[in-house]
């Protein structure tokens, strides 16, 4: 089977690229592409450099959602997110405190930037602006195409970092049940998707830590496609979940794979990238039992001894209890505790007992959880 795939893959990939090129040229010629947009994905950095990704696409005017939007409107917006018109081989300039970098968009329209941080920069807050500009002309009457991105830079008040999954960790999606996940994704919106009770208050408590300063960074690592970026960012904002870089993945046919990247490899690579940028703080990792987050986090513990402070796993799949117990034991032998929870408040009480969050915040989490449950 693998040999057949290896022989078929180059052929299928050439067909895909030919079709994408034909679609783009035809769209420009027929005037179907009326405007181009830069979609910046929030980034992060250290005292040495910043890192972020952006994507160049036809602007399909998706806009934000409304609590009153019906299923058909939600479906149309989601359809536009996935039926993209990628703009390859276009130069994009990024400017950060006088430092400039130019990157070329790849075949899927992505550009990746790593920009040095000027040594004499002093930042008043943790989120800093990066300005992006398209340097090449794609369509007639294009005009200026610009965007502004934000990147997280650590302050001196960091106690620890938090890395969290999203699907079935923050919000129920049925990620282990394909049809349920498809319905939830394509027929809902940021308002109709409701987080697990108490999640927003718990994440705010972790962000503040012990010193009551909102400085501990949150990173959201998911196997969802980049096509859902604006949807997920809106979801975090609507439900008052602390903002942070959102690290997703590209899906579909690539040169190397029929479906670009596995869940395990993608999430492991992103978590370890974060660890490489922040070498002097420990991390709390949060996930669920449905999509092998515990296995991924176990590998992180092995690769980065002493860097993982705690692991919280939301129990969403009872059939994996035996596997969870085995992983718990392996982590314990490596000096890291993994707590399996069904209730956000249990994780909060544990964090309080460890001295990582404040007692007043646990009271807020309990009250928020009760309010969320009444809404549901």
UniProtKB/TrEMBL annotation:
| Taxonomy, superkingdom | Bacteria
Q: Where is the Phosphatidate phosphatase APP1 catalytic domain?
A: 160-315
What the entry lists under InterPro entries is as follows: APP1_cat (IPR019236), Mg2+_PAP (IPR052935)
Q: Which GO terms describe its molecular function?
A: phosphatidate phosphatase activity
What Pfam families does the record tag this protein with? APP1_cat
Q: Which PANTHER family match?
A: PHOSPHATIDATE PHOSPHATASE APP1
| Name of the protein | Phosphatidate phosphatase APP1
From the broadest rank down, the organism's phylogenetic lineage runs:
Bacteria, Pseudomonadati, Bacteroidota, Cytophagia, Cytophagales
